[in-house]
Design goal:
A three-stranded parallel β-sheet has the order 1-2-3, with no helix packed on it. It starts with about 20 loop residues before the first strand and ends in a 6-residue tail after the last strand. It has about 80 residues and is largely without helices or strands. The chain is built from no helices and three strands.
Length: about 80
Amino acid sequence: LNLDHDELRTLPDSLGELSHLRYLSCYDNKLVSLPATIGLLQCLETFDAHNNTLTELPVSLWNCASLMHINVTSNLL
């Protein structure tokens, strides 16, 4: 799922319903937070959220058992 360059400030909680999602890219937006439901994405392998304004990552992100690649550079972490 590619949500890059859309000036998004949030992602919906319903994101967690995409149980077979393997790739999520939401870089170069204005995200200030991520929904806790991201932790429900058990098939997520790649997550790219660089160049946003994130100040923290939800603890639930580490529940993504298949996650192999994560890029959250250029945030306020």
